[in-house]
Design a protein that fits this description.
The chain has 16 helices and twelve strands. With about 475 residues, the protein is of the alpha/beta class. The protein has a seven-stranded mixed sheet with strand order 9-8-7-6-10-11-12, sandwiched between helices. It binds nicotinamide-adenine-dinucleotide.
Length: about 475
């Protein structure tokens, strides 16, 4: 719960923006133009459910249209409100600029507890919400392209895509109206895991820079680092899974709504996820200690803290008790403006949301491109690539035999070398490249300018500078 004297989420984003633009040379007019949210549409609609009409309130906010379409997820939660949607839309503008996806920023939300409705009811509600947005071009392949966020996933995106197609029967690009769809209706391999995968790639890139790692009072690579994750939903689950299974991290705690599981030896993420899916909570999981006051576990001893649930969880009330030397903001806005100041003074290094969770929008961009080009990535070149590799392997083996050189290529090498890139491999490669390039661009600003105190300010400067350049090119 935020303290009374804390700014709201949107005010926090604006304060972070202001802190960055003070270090930039922007005209006050342009600065104001970039900061403000262009528009927020509020809709109230009724759906007949369980014998009576239920009224729902939804929002779609467009922060900046310096590039179109605008892009941003749709969130389902009871806490959704205009302030939150506008803050998230602003973050989308900066995030898209930072990872060079050609979009403006948007966000949507519906005030609803998705767990209170069954699947058929949720479909009716989603289709009706989508209808309201589609008829105002607030869902449109060329103007506004939503994606999943908290409380929504592939299922909801499939309903939205179908609703758009029903209302725009001759639009050949209809599938590009929304991303995060299941693959059988135009989605892309690797989108479901993308945000968590991006968190992993972000951390890998951070650990490639020993100078930055030392600033977090850490050393070495990600292996053996003790990690606490808050939220085992789409983002938190995939991040925890990849970091533990592929990078040797030890997940020492997972925090969910009903409490936290703690184990110094490390939690089996897959088993915890199954328990959560089966029981709706973490309580009762064997082989780890359950702590009912989950929030207190944010303050536990660890190397890396990954808040991956929701905004405002590290605030003025607990920031000085946070012990993690490195925080990766997998959620949007998990650290308030006030907490950010406290943590920085303590020497904590924060990998900011606009970079850390940009994997989702990056792969959404690939999905949108796939939908517009109407062809799966890798379809044209995969077998050609394999044929060229085969040519080389055959020639090396022929040379070895003819000249009695005694070379043998290992089966593992041949296997990997002879496998052409399919869609998933290409998506991961594109995501990895994006995360590395984006981190390098922000750390360059961080290190080159002594007045830039941290990665967040550097990320804002990098993003705002790119948005400003686009506006200037438009004559503003
Ligand atoms: P999700 O709904 O799949 O998962 C959220 C998880 O957090 C759930 O398991 C929920 O039970 C848990 N949770 C909710 N409130 C909590 C609390 N107070 N304490 C502990 N756990 C709590 O949502 P998601 O898509 O994983 O999104 C999580 C965060 O990541 C959000 O801030 C979202 O904006 C951000 N994000 C998501 C994506 C994406 O592609 N899904 C992309 C970028 C950023």
């Amino acid at each position: 719960m935020l303290a009374m004297n804390e700014p709201s989420f949107r005010e926090s984003v604006d304060l972070m923006f202001n802190r960055a633009v003070r270090l930039m040379d922007l005209s006050p007019g342009l600065e104001q133009k970039i900061r403000v949210c262009n528009s927020t549409y509020t809709v109230r609609f009724g759906v007949r459910l369980r014998g009576k009409i239920e009224t729902f309130t939804g929002y779609r906010s467009v922060h900046s249209e310096h590039m179109e379409p605008v892009k941003g997820g749709i969130r389902y939660a009871l806490s959704v409100n205009q302030d939150e949607v506008e803050a998230l839309a602003a973050l989308m503008t900066y995030k898209c600029a930072l990872v060079e996806t050609p979009f403006g920023g948007s966000k949507g939300g519906l005030c609803i507890d998705p767990r209170a409705w069954d699947e058929h009811e949720l479909e009716q509600i989603t289709r009706r919400f989508a209808y309201e947005l589609i008829k105002r071009d607030l869902i449109h392949p060329a103007q506004n392209v939503p994606a999943p966020d908290m409380g929504t996933g592939e299922r909801e995106m499939a309903w939205i895509a179908d609703q758009y197609a029903r209302m725009n029967t001759t639009d050949i690009n209809a599938k590009a109206c929304v991303t995060g769809k299941p693959t059988h209706v135009g989605g892309i391999q690797g989108r479901l895991e993308a945000t968590g995968r991006g968190v992993q790639y972000a951390l890998r890139e951070f650990f490639r820079h020993p100078e930055d790692v030392a600033k977090a009072q850490l050393s070495g690579g990600p292996e053996d680092k003790r990690v606490v994750v808050q939220g085992l939903g789409n983002v938190g689950y995939h991040a925890a899974k990849f970091l533990s299974q592929e990078d040797g991290c030890i997940i020492t705690a997972i925090i969910e709504r009903d409490g936290a599981l703690v184990s110094d030896a490390g939690l089996d993420v897959e088993a915890v996820k199954q328990h959560l899916a089966a029981t709706g909570g973490l309580k009762g999981f064997a082989g780890a200690d359950f702590i009912a006051d989950g929030k207190s576990v944010l303050e536990g001893d660890c190397d890396i803290l990954i808040p991956a649930a929701m905004e405002g969880v590290i605030h003025l009330g607990n920031a000085d008790r946070i012990r993690a030397p490195l925080i990766v903001e997998a959620a949007n806005g998990p650290i308030t403006y006030g907490a950010d100041e406290i943590l920085r003074k303590k020497g904590c290094i924060i990998i900011p949301d606009m970079f850390a969770n940009a994997g989702g929008v990056t792969v959404s961009y690939f999905e949108w491109v796939k939908n517009l080009s109407h062809i799966r990535f890798g379809r044209m070149q995969r077998r050609a690539e394999e044929a060229r590799s085969r040519l080389l392997v055959d020639e090396l083996e022929r040379l070895s035999a003819d000249q009695a050189l005694g070379w043998t290529l290992t089966a593992d090498f041949k296997d990997r070398f002879l496998t052409g890139s399919d869609e998933l491999a290409l998506v991961r490669s594109g995501l990895d490249d994006t995360m590395r390039t984006a981190y390098q661009s922000i750390r360059e600003v961080w290190h080159a300018r002594p007045e830039v105190p941290d990665l967040r300010v550097a990320a804002y400067i990098t993003a705002i500078d790119r948005v400003a350049k686009t506006y200037r090119s438009k004559g503003l």
